[in-house]
Structure formats: structure tokens, C-alpha cells
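so my prof wants the structure for this chain in the C-alpha cells format not the other one, which i didnt know existed until like an hour ago. anyway here's the sequence
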Amino acid sequence: MGAFSGSGGTKIVRYLLDTNHCSYLQRGHPRVVAKFRSLPPGTEVLTSVVTQAELLAGIYLASSARRRRELILIYEELMNEIAEILPITSAVAEHFARITSELARKGRPIPVNDLWIAAIAMAHNLILVTSDTHFSVIEGLQVEDWTQAEGEEA
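here's what i got, hopefully its the right format
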């Protein structure tokens, strides 16, 4: 379940933050921040180059140079908390192609950037942390929504 055995057989949980959860952390969403801060030692929290690009695009869209500087500081603070920014690789591309074709056959397309994010999560066996419900149509993708209380459904 999004984990692998560490030394001594302990399970290390690995999460991939979607753009919305990175934004929630940056804005101080109480549930998301509480969950992030309460993760057990050894938990890995990662994000993708796709999310990085979306966050940076948001900074460039800021209405003033002053606001861009503020957003850059908030972005850098968040990136210091992230273990790694995962790239798109050949393995990710294979997952992307499979997911895209499966959803096309089902007539259930989702945004392209979200397909890449899902493919990265699946290629690395990560739990995707997102509040976007359309990810639920991707078979085999593990998803958590930290904006919801434990056991609560979106």
C-alpha cells in the first residue's frame, strides 16, 4: 500500500502531493497541515515536476512583482519540505500511455497534467494525495484526500 519495507521490516509510506495539496499547505489549510505535520518519521513526501510547473505557473500569473516575490518565498519554503521532485521517465510514460488508453476506452478522460501525475504515482508505487475526485476512475491508483477527516468521503 504505497510503502516498501525499510530496515527491520518497517513500512515506509511514500506520498505524492498533487498541486491542490501543495497549494493547501502553502495557504495553511488546517487539516492538510495537521496531517502533514503528524506523519510518522521516515514517511516520504514527494511531488512531481508537473506539480512544480503548475505551482510556478501560478507564481508567474501573480498580478504584481511584489506578490510574485511573496509567492516565491512560500513556494521555496514548501519545496524545502519535499523529499524529492520526481521527473517524467520512460517508466512513467508507459503508465501514462496505459492510463490514457484505458480512460479513453471508458469514455472517462481527465486533464492531461493529472494523467502525468497519476502515472508518476503509479510508476513509483506512491499514494497520491489530492482532492480531485476524478482520479478515482484510474484503476490501481492509491489516493488519499487530506482535506477530509479520517473515514470521511469527498
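also thought this was worth mentioning. Confidence is low (pLDDT under 50) at residues 1-5.
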